[in-house]
Structures are given as structure tokens and as C-alpha cells.
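dumping this here before i forget
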Amino acid sequence: MVSLRQMTVDDGALLRDIRLLALSADPRVFGSSFAKEKEYDAAIWRSWLEDADVAIFGLFDDADAVAGMTAIALSRDDPARRTAKLWGSWMRPDLRGRGFSELFYRARIDWARRHPEVEKIIVSHRASNIASMKANQKHGFIFTHRAPHIWPDGAAEDQLFYELVIKKTCV
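structure:
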């Protein structure tokens, strides 16, 4: 049975392993690179997991091995702290197309609803990443704009942006 759970500070090595696997397996879909992040020390991975304004979720397979990840964090571009940003989603190819991205969206949107300040979630992707486009729209994200972008692999391709205004739930 595949499961998703929020990673804790004790999961630093798991986070590093899955993130580096994702960056090496599918470098075109990320805003960072394997070359950059392979140099991160344990303190950096741990700091991501210690930050209360970041939630990183690990997808675990039947053997309880980490098989994917997804994340949400308060946007650094919003000093009012009203905006969260989705980032870092990836899962092993053998798990794709089986509906597990629903777990990713549900966990991140629920986290944003519980966060006392977040009012909207933004997400972006490379224009050619049709799977991301379809998943974002399926979960209620509305296209807002596109902008020229140079990706870490050197390619010039537009970045498409979406947002979802969230409704708060009581905790």
C-alpha cells in the first residue's frame, strides 16, 4: 500500500536521497539542479524539515521505501505571508498514472488551509510540462500568467503560473 506522510527532521537522509534521485531522473522539471543540491550538507536538508513554514511530504511504497516527494512553503516573495507555493513534486515512474498525485494535492492544500496566514497557493511549471498543467487545473488552480524563463538546463521556455484561493478549515 502506498502512503504519504509529512517528513520530520529525522528524515533528512531520506529527503536528500529522494530529492537527488528526482533531480537526476527528471532534471527538466525542476528549478534547481542535481549539481547544485548534491553539494548540500546535512544541515541544509535538516533546515528544510525544521522550518514551520515548510511542509515536505514523502511518498512511501509497499516496501516502505521513499518513492516520491512533494512540498509547500510560504512564498519568499510575499512579505505579508499570505501566499504559499507548491514545489518539488516528483514520484518514481512506476507509480505515475495511478492517482497518487491526488495524495500530493490533498496534503498540501490541507496544510495551507490549516496555516493561520495562508490565503492562496501558487504553483508554476515549465510550459512543456503538460502533466503538471493538467494536475494543477484538475485541483482548481487557475492560470494567471506566463513569463519567459531560463531553466537550470539552459533551455529558454516560458514558465506558466497558477493560483488557488483557499477556504480555511477549523482545526
